[in-house]
Amino acid sequence: MNFDFTEDQHEIKRTARELLAKRSGPEQVREAAEGEAYDMSLFVELRKLGWTGIAIDEQYGGAGLGVVELMILCEELGYALAASPFLANALGGLMIEHAGSDDQRAKWLPGIASGEATATVAFASGGTAQVVPDADGAAVIVLIEGDEATLIARDDAQVEPLITIDPTRRYARVSASGGEPLPGDVASALARAEVALSAEMVGIAQRTQEMAIEYAKERKQFDTPIGAFQAISHRCAQMLFDTEGARSATYFGGWAADADESQLAFAAAIAKAAASEAALSVTASSIQVHGGIGFTWEADVHWFFKRAQLDATMLGGTGKQRARVTQLTAASLATAGAA
Amino acid sequence: MNFDFTEDQHEIKRTARELLAKRSGPEQVREAAEGEAYDMSLFVELRKLGWTGIAIDEQYGGAGLGVVELMILCEELGYALAASPFLANALGGLMIEHAGSDDQRAKWLPGIASGEATATVAFASGGTAQVVPDADGAAVIVLIEGDEATLIARDDAQVEPLITIDPTRRYARVSASGGEPLPGDVASALARAEVALSAEMVGIAQRTQEMAIEYAKERKQFDTPIGAFQAISHRCAQMLFDTEGARSATYFGGWAADADESQLAFAAAIAKAAASEAALSVTASSIQVHGGIGFTWEADVHWFFKRAQLDATMLGGTGKQRARVTQLTAASLATAGAA
Amino acid sequence: MDLTFNESESAFRDELRDWIKANHPGEEPAGEDEGYAFRRDWQRQLYKAGWAAVHWPTEYGGRDATLVEAAIFNEELARARAPFPANVLGLLLAGPTLMTWGTDEQRQRYLDPIMSGDEIWCQGFSEPEAGSDLASLKSKAVRDGDDWLVTGQKVWTSGAQYSKWCMLVARTDFDAPKHKGLTYFILDMEQEGVEIRPLRQITGDSEFNELFLENARIPAENVVGGAGNGWTVALTTLMNERAGLAFGLQVGMTVALDELTEQLAAAGKLDDPMIADELGALRIKCEILRLTAYRGLTATMKYGQPGPEGSLTKWMWSQGNQELMQFATKALGPQALTGSSTWGRAMLRSRGNSIEGGTTEVLKNIIAERVLGLPRKK
Amino acid sequence: MDLTFNESESAFRDELRDWIKANHPGEEPAGEDEGYAFRRDWQRQLYKAGWAAVHWPTEYGGRDATLVEAAIFNEELARARAPFPANVLGLLLAGPTLMTWGTDEQRQRYLDPIMSGDEIWCQGFSEPEAGSDLASLKSKAVRDGDDWLVTGQKVWTSGAQYSKWCMLVARTDFDAPKHKGLTYFILDMEQEGVEIRPLRQITGDSEFNELFLENARIPAENVVGGAGNGWTVALTTLMNERAGLAFGLQVGMTVALDELTEQLAAAGKLDDPMIADELGALRIKCEILRLTAYRGLTATMKYGQPGPEGSLTKWMWSQGNQELMQFATKALGPQALTGSSTWGRAMLRSRGNSIEGGTTEVLKNIIAERVLGLPRKK
Lengths: 339, 339, 378, 378
Fold this sequence. Notes:
The complex is a heterotetramer, with 2 copies of chain A and 2 copies of chain C. Chain A contains 11 helices and 9 strands. By secondary structure, chain A is of the alpha+beta class. In chain A, the strands form 3 sheets. Chain A has a 4-stranded mixed β-sheet with strand order 1-3-4-7, with helices on one face. A 3-stranded antiparallel β-sheet of chain A has the order 2-6-5, with no helix packed on it. Chain A has a two-stranded antiparallel ribbon with strand order 8-9. In chain A, strand 5 (about 160) and strand 6 (about 170-175) form a beta hairpin. Chain A is globular and about 65 Å long. The model of chain A has no long low-confidence stretch (mean pLDDT about 95). Chain C contains 10 helices and 8 strands. A 4-stranded mixed β-sheet of chain C has the order 1-4-5-8. A 4-stranded antiparallel β-sheet of chain C has the order 2-3-7-6, with no helix packed on it. The longest helix of chain C has about 35 residues, at about 230-265. Chain C is globular and about 70 Å long. Chains A and D meet through helix 7, strand 9, helix 8, helix 9 and helix 11 of A and helix 6, helix 7 and helix 10 of D.
């Protein structure tokens, strides 16, 4: 039992934190958001560092590391609120690597690993996915409908760029008919994607928690730092509670993806539910701690709040995850009882 | 528009508060609870004062006042946590008066009004109601199953007294087959009963809120009255929020019962939902404010907490009420849209 | 207890309803300036028909409406989806404050243009360093002959760019304790010493502004309620803010919830028990807000002040409205967060509800100390 | 990262599991005294097989178990529904405190009887006036020749009626500041100056007692960690309380949640989407508690202390367990509140979770100040 990263994994985390502090600081995020366009040189840098292929098999040009390493990067990218198509590409890559055929892998994974021909994934209904991250710039789009997933080349899909409340990321509506089914285990590929997405939300929660605490130490009202008032300090403690809980669940998901497939469905469901709720509540709470300032465009906390809103809806909301958790535990208790 | 009691109604409230402070103080409640038996002299006194018949038509020996006056008494009885079969009798009386036939009314209401032959009511499933207040001492029991209500003479029912976590009231399991259907408008009679029950819970919330505030002013920790800490003072503010909200809804229900039947179903549903939630949360919160003391048998707050638990489940829980509120509003919006 | 409107209240409502029907200006045009001009025209129309300031005494051109009638006014406007008058701060705050504290000359001079919308008012209370702690404000006014010269910075000044006058509180005595030494002024916005910068919110809109004052000049006769009495006068304004605005906000929440219910019904989502449950919970909160607001009105009319429930409506509204908007964007699906929906922006806007007009934390302090009598924080 | 047990952990678990299977004492008898005697016998059985104090160093008769193995011990006991040993406070608190602060003579004298259950220990920290504010305790100890004489009152002393020894903190220096001037004693409970009165809880049970001390005599050699050092020594006990108990509690919550899920499944209620939803939410909280507890163990083993997550488990557990019990009584219907069900009583008991062992309010203060570095309340 060792619920901690390896030294190599810690090193990945440190490196990512340092790099992103320089390359995706508040000014850069703001510039991308206000310009409603990515700083593509950042993405190029991530590609060159091999981040885009971190969890992709070496035979396809990836680094061959696991979901845990990908999760570490996603958390740091969320912490930095990096404006890039990294996450969507990673999620699409997980779908194709873990549910695709050999041919599909061979065709698409090299581009995903290098970041030169990116992927994305979304839930669809009747062939249409309403809000898909980074679909317009993608080479390949995976649409999940019910238990099936379909792979669609960008050119075979209708992609209609959208304005959303989250200008730190590009979104589009995607419609397609046809496409190739992914023949493999869609559920387990999706679970990996949920874990990576959860990690981004853990990073978002962590960062906005830190912003709130920092502000609460500095801002004075009634001649006292507001962090000395329990209304504020207990709210900050609640942020820690939510963030750390989501982190525990997400890391469990990462581990299960790499080491114990039998627990993956359960772990991914609790990760997605906990991380969504944490990101939503911590970002909202952080705005409240910032008071009037937090409600202004000039403060940075709203970008995180907005990203959290979109992330939480991606790949199914909390309600779906809770129902799934109950199903899975009831089944496992019934099995244990029968044994 | 006048959202306040009449002078007569205020007078009923004042009288009830004063009388119950003397006749149902903390010691008397404790004695009844620990002895698991009512102080029947209290009930006799309430009967003599005509409280049992307050909302029953004069032709049956009642005072012929409305649900508002009954509600006022129920709130005060909840505030005092009076140990008596008053509430169950009143709820049963509302069912028979508003959904019974003339014969049923003539047969049962005089005994209910005088308190000499009391009634009760509960939800049943397959002819059995699991937890019925004051069934053992009742003369007549109304069982509601689906949209139907059946009237059963005590002697025709199997009544099995129960121990519950609330020793301030007597409960029993009731089974019966047959009985006479109540031919009238069961839903609107039930709505009146829900309002009266809600009023008891408003009284419970009010009293435990006051207990918490009083304790928070006196108890010192870290050389400061604990009520000066926001963790406590904001919790007390939340109690006011919950209690006053439940009161607004319950009074609306009382008014609708007496003056505007068209709003009664809606008003009763919000009253029951809000009063249940308020009673549950305020009593739990009051225990927390009292700290270790609040967890002891010697403090009085737990009697209220326990009563609230049983009250909240009576006549259907919050989930049912919320669903009903949505149904009713959707229907009324559809009608308004069509008009 | 009578939760229906009495005869005169009904008559008031019917007359108003008929008038709005006949005079409804249609939908507000896009664009901030266009919208403002539209609401200003609408106010002029209300003014001509005697509807602009129903809650004002007849001697000042109002209808001497009761609190209930004033509530009806807001309800009817909201239900008809008619705009609110442009000079809302003048009508609800500046006017009543001048009626209480102003000189005869001030009333004579300012009230009618407030009502007609000829002169718009804004409010200069908050400062960057004095948010919840209003009494610690730092803007200073010094005497210069018969005038005062004010220097400092204000924030959250809505409508400043359209305003002729500002209700300004500044420090005039630096030796007095915090709450003393403040003075309430009427500041002419049309002068060199006043600079207005729009303050962008997280929605991208700029409802508010920052105000930079540098030796802005105020003649001595523009002091309201006497020098050094600014804290007390400002409290009058704030009390009016809480009482007057709550009712309109409640109606706004009802209208939004009705709309959401209709949209979910149309999408066939009311059969989902989880959605029906959450929607029911929100409806209950919304009704409780409405009922509690009416209880507060009755108490104020009968006893001169609201009961404990009166302190709760702002909090009920801000919490309920935030939950409503968060639920709406969840229940309607991610499309609600796109530009083709108004819900996403409304949800963002709602984050300000628990901050603007007194943070929920400060409201709870006030309730704990003034309503519940708990000891003051040390 | 490896969330499975490694080879030696697995071996530990398998050996323990086999042993419990072979030696399970069956169901605990009704009646408080009977139950206690039963758990004391069970402890003797564990002791003889070397399982009583797995987390103690081998030199004191333990197995030098790692934190993970100690967690496994609690998990396996709970999963097998075997009782916990009677002398839990001796094993988890008194023993480790003596190992850190005790003299060689004290360790020699006290540790083995703690492990065997021959001598039961209780804890005398809390006082009626000093609940969350432990440092303000008023019990006083004065010198009387070579002895100390203690007078005062303690509360929340569980197991006092069965105890030979009490970990007692009393004030020995009245001129020193609040946190100084306390001394940690080993008090012999079998003497005239000690009176025990059962303290009844809202469940009707008496898990706890009040302790009335009047010139209770303590020989000087029974001071632990030196006179005036009581606050520091007591913190060791409290740290052990938080770390040691959290794991057992987490397992208890899982067991209860499994039971509830099975009962609801048997009643066909899992098809109700509302119930499935709330049950899922509770399971998520329960799993997060388990995972966070393990994260804390790993951090403690690797870095000597838990990370920020280590401060959260008591809070997570108390909140989760209260929600679980409230939900259980709601979902199972009113029968769950009757004497024929154990859920009603468990729900009542759970109200104490957010108070015992540090109120949630105090925990949040500690987190805010020590973990987040926020300024201390004034």
